[in-house]
Amino acid sequence: MRPPSSRRPESFFLTKFTDLGLAEPLLKALATEGYETPTPIQAQAIPHILQGRDLLGAAQTGTGKTAAFALPMLHRLLANPRRLSPRAVRVLILSPTRELAAQIETSIRAYAQFTTLRSTVIFGGVPVGKQIRALGDKIDILVATPGRLLDLVDQRAVSLREIEFLVLDEADQMLDLGFIHALRRIATLIPKERQTLLFSATMPKPIRDIASAYLTDPVEVAVTPVATTAEKIDQRVIFTEPGDKPALLAKTLSVPEMERAIVFTRTKHGADKVVRQLEQSGIEAAAIHGNKSQGQRERALGAFRDGRLRILVATDIAARGIDVDGISHVVNFDLPNVPETYVHRIGRTARAGAAGVAIAFCTPEERGDLAAIEKLTGVKPAPVGEVPYWDGRTPKKPQQNRGGRGQQQGRPQGQGRPQGQAKRADGKRSDQGGHRNHAGGAPRQERQDRQEQRQEHRPRTGERQQRPEQRLQRKEAVSAKEGLGGVAFLQQRTQQPRTDGARRRAR
Fold first, then answer.
1. Nearest-angstrom CA–CA distance, 53 and 313
2. Could you tell me the sign of the dihedral formed by the alpha carbons of 306, 309, 311, 317, in that order?
């Protein structure tokens, strides 16, 4: 395969959907939905896809990827109508999670509302009968998770022999979830003569290998450098102890400026535990993770989206594909042990030009994870304080605080330069992963949590997983008073724009 092309057609510089040459029914749908101006990924990708090119797109969640591939595909389907064999489809869109698959199909329905093109979605966790019946109708576009798709292929409920377009969305996450074997089998079931589009938030070597195997002479587009974080996200870190995290979280979420927040945990058990702890503090929250039924996940996400629920607690897998406007804060209750995951997490805020705040809780055992994140992103989150307890507004006075107040606000430091590895007090690197208790052993629940982490966060093929450091011998000299500054950083409203009106951007 030749190296990917990075050429940009002249239409990249156009600013309206009406300038892209899309079919009239699609423009009518966009106008109905209130979309006028394409996002950067849409402006770059749509002209290439209209030309029939395979495409490799680097873009994070919330940049408008769905419209970037859906609109030109719908245009080409309309321009070349054809009769299909029973249970055959023309377009296959693969997604790593149920939520993302459902969201993609909802968007496609909106864009195709003034056409005769039909779509459906299939994923696991729900009865298969209804999905089989839907595939019995004339379906042009199928959105699916790999596992359920292969189940239905084996049942001969769907045929992939007439596929014209293949889309791999969130390809890096599909590799994380261990879908590589499913993808290889699917590739053997679809025609070699097809147009293939691959989108990923990060571009590690395994993704490049997938692109080489699945795409032919692709054009490559990117809207942001790989592994960078949104410029308008104010990134903060609070150094604390494991046992102090629940009280710290409750006080953090009690601040009125916390309008709508997602709290991330590493494990399913951890998410449920956080919800129980918040409820004991009088804070309503709901968890979404792989052990929740599809109905439970949809109800929680629906309440969060329409504002009836202010706090959503999620694992990384369940949260993949969540695209909710107006998220003011992202709280990393547990730091991820895969640094790219941090980029995905905080990208839930600061959408559509708005500002946002990302807060990370960091224990001594998580310092290594923080160092890996700083190295990947080139951003060092500004320390809020190293405190065991925080009342949300008035910082606890430290035992030693002889210096001045320091800066209360400001942008994250270290922009534009990788920070490398954090300086360790003992000069050594831990040989064991996971969290350790103070006595050196791991209690039963922590062992269970680590088992869940391996299931939900498998490291990418060919990548080494960052290990936590050994416990530091002394804490960093950052006082609570100096860092917290009366939680001024939280009291800065993020000024989320309204999502209604005629100037929304297509997802």
1. 40
2. negative
d(CA 216, CA 46): 17
Of 97, 30, 40, nearest to 65 by C-alpha is 40
Residue 496 maps to a domain: no
User: What pLDDT shows up at residue 61?
Assistant: 67
| Residues whose CB is less than 8 angstroms from the CB of residue 305 and which lie 6 or more positions away in sequence, other chains included | 324
pLDDT at 64 over 90: no
Please give the angle made by the CA atoms of 169, 61 and 276, to the nearest 5 degrees: 110
Question: SS3 letters for 351-388?
Answer: CCCCCEEEEEEECHHHHHHHHHHHHHHCCECEEEEECC
Q: Which of 172, 191, 204, 230 is closest to 85 using CA atoms?
A: 191
Contact of 78 with 23, CB cutoff 8 Å = yes
Host domain of residue 209: 10-222
pTM, two decimals, is: 0.57
**Beta-carbon count within 10 A of 79 CB:** 9
Q: Identify whether residues 250 and 185 lie together within a single domain.
A: no
Q: Tens of pLDDT along 98-143?
A: 888 988 999 999 999 999 999 999 998 888 999 999 998 889 999 9
Residues 251 and 308 in one domain: yes
* Same domain (yes/no): 251, 203: no
* Count of structural domains within the chain: 2
Shared domain for 396 and 343, answered yes or no, is yes
Does residue 497 belong to any structural domain of this protein? no
Q: Which of 222, 257, 281 is the last residue of a domain?
A: 222
Higher pLDDT, 369 or 386: 369
Q: How many CB atoms lie within 10 A of CB 81?
A: 10
